Amino acid sequence: MPKTMDKRAQARRMARVQRAHETEQPIPRRGATEQKRAPQKRAPQKRKRGGFMGFIQTFPVLTSIILIAVLAGAGVFTYNYAYQHKLGPFAPKPLVQAVCNLKTHHCNKAPIMFINVHKTYIATIHTVRGNIVIQLDAKDTPITVNNFVFLSENHYYNGTYFWRVEIPGKPSPLDNQPSVLQLIQGGSVTKNGQDPSSSPGYKFNDEKVVGNYTTGTVAMANAGPNTNGAQFFIDTGDNSKYFSKSYTIFGKVISGLDVAKKIQPQDKILYISIQVK
Q1: DSSP secondary structure letter of residue 124
Q2: pTM of the model
Q3: I want to staple 136 with a disulfide (CB 3.0 to 4.6 A). Which of 42, 62, 68, 121 is the partner?
């Protein structure tokens, strides 16, 4: 009986051991290296920017429209500014001064304005009898003074004639009748004042007459309204009651009036010098 109980007990013990081997899992020892689980990769995400760059990323079409509008506005502004201020392609072409041929006494056009009306111009007419000094009126007659200064400085008057001398009671060179006038007229390229139509090659308009044709006044000679050119006259006496105000007065003799009264027909102008103050 004891032997049988021992065999049964031994069989049961063996059965428990077998079951334990079938169901129990080995317990890893503390400190053993565990296999790490590989992390799952994620798709990279674009980082959103803030501010102006963020606006461009968010609204690319709207940004393009705004940019085009800004550039168009800048272009229109630049165009208008250049047009108003005459810049770039709108800049005026530089003015070219007139040119005179001294052999023919012909100028290609009337001179452009170059004098300073705020300055004083003194003209000295050098003659075979002496010098006649004239203060020119640039303020009241800028066009006429500009013309006279231009012709003088370009030697147009060199060698021209005082062809007309009017003395009361003496025959006038115009009609050979006794004259009532007192004046000398010069600036002619011919001895009788009959300049060719090519001299000086242009005509310019009258200016408002300031003053009267009193002794010493200097005025432009003409053949009618707005036909001024190169010839001028000096009043050696008071001619105010004989002339209508149709001859532009552009200067006054300040020295040498006695020389003017000595001038004879066909006396030459040697040259005219200009002083600016």
Answers
A1: E
A2: 0.70
A3: 121
